Structure of Glycosyl transferase:
Amino acid sequence: MLTIIMECRDDEAELAQTLSALVSGAVEGIVRDVIVLDHGSRDGSSTVADAAGCRFLTVWDMPEVLRSARGDWLLLLEPGARPMAGWVDAIVDHVAVDPGPARFRGVRGYRRPFLQRLLRGAPPLERGYLVSKRQVGAVARPGMALADIAKGGKARDLGAEIVPAWVVRAMRS
C-alpha cells in the first residue's frame, strides 16, 4: 500500500530516528518498502538503511524510482521526522476516502518561532507529504527532488501529528 521515500546526506542519526518510528507501519503491513536517495553521505547512513531493509540508492532517476516503488501511495519524509502515534490509522483512513495528497499536522510543542514561520514559511517536507503514485508519475522528471514533488498542490491534514526533522537536528546541536 505505502512506499516511504527520503533523501539524505550524512543523516545517519536522523535516518535511524525516522526508521524506528515507521516500524509500526511495517508490522501492520501498510509499509511495503522504504527507499533512501543518497546525496553523497560519508557517514553510516547506508549501514542504517541496509540494517532496516531499505533500498539505498546513490544514483537514481526520479521517474524510475517512482516506477519501482511497491506501494500505490508514497509518503515523502525528511530524515529525522517522526510520525506520532496513530499515523498508520490516519493514512489508512485518508487513502480509503480521499484520492488527494495529505500532510501530517505539526506537533504543537515543536513549532518554529513566529517570525521564522512568517518570513520563511515551512519547507515543503516539514510535515511529510502523502500522495498517490499515479499523481506523481505524471509530473516526475529526471533530477527532480522530493521537495519539488511536495510543492505541488493543496494537501489535506491527516488525523495524526509529526515531529519535524528540524527538532531532531536542534536537539543534537
Q: What stands out?
A: The chain has a mean pLDDT of 90.
